[in-house]
Design goal:
Blueprint lengths: L5 H15 L8 H18 L2 H6 L1 E6 L9 H10 L7 E3 L4 E5 L2 E10 L5 E9 L5 E8 L2
Parallel strand pairs: 1-6
Antiparallel strand pairs: 2-4, 3-4, 4-5, 5-6
């Protein structure tokens, strides 16, 4: 089931601003990383290849040794084959763990027409102020 986390994030951000003061208090690393991951999922669901690729850091890698240079071709092929058609992401079950400037998100459960899959993502706040995926591994 695809669930929007935007209302939850809005509540978190509103509470943070009220409790912490508007000038100096912003959303947590966890909430920012969750929103970045949500935007990546939206790009997958809508077939937005640029949005998918831009969600990944230039330093991204996976357990198979792939780097960002292969992502565009992979995503273009997946969109052309309809791999993301009827894709849903169970965002309610994702747990976030903050360790310094890295946020780990797991399990990220995809339900697709081809087969379900579960991933672990690591995101990092990069120097341009954008949270991007630096590591992704399929665990099921």
């Amino acid at each position: 089931m695809k669930v929007s986390i935007k209302p939850v994030l809005f509540l978190l951000l509103s509470s943070a601003l009220l409790l912490g003061g508007c000038a100096s208090f912003g959303p947590s690393a966890e909430a920012d990383a969750a929103e970045a991951l949500h935007q990546f999922h939206e790009a997958e669901i809508t077939g937005d290849v640029n949005g998918m690729v831009n969600a990944f850091s230039d330093t991204w890698s996976n357990s198979e040794g792939a780097t960002k240079s292969v992502l565009r071709g992979y995503f273009e092929g997946a969109v052309a084959q309809g791999s993301f058609r009827n894709l849903t992401v169970d965002e309610d079950r994702i747990k976030y763990a903050v360790n310094g400037n890295i946020v780990t998100a797991e399990p990220v459960i995809y339900n697709a027409a081809t087969a379900p899959a579960t991933f672990v993502y690591k995101l990092k706040l990069e120097s341009d102020g954008v949270w991007r995926i630096i590591r992704s591994d399929q665990i099921r």
